[in-house]
Structure prediction request, 78 residues.
Amino acid sequence: MQIDYGTVIAGMVLTHALCVIVMAELWYENRAQFPMLKLWFADFAAQVLALGLIIARGRIPDLLSIVLAHALLIGGMV
Prediction:
């Protein structure tokens, strides 16, 4: 049994979306003590957006699905 590429990416989007929700809650509760949590939140948000653009490849312009998605992935990691 082989897993489809889209299934793996969709699973990653769901996992990262859950991480965005958790990071948003952690940031909201602890933003005074740990100001760097906003960077983690921004990273996960960029990852979710980039993966969503990658999934939409073929339905949206290539500039968005390739260039912007990869810029978000790299920017999030940095």
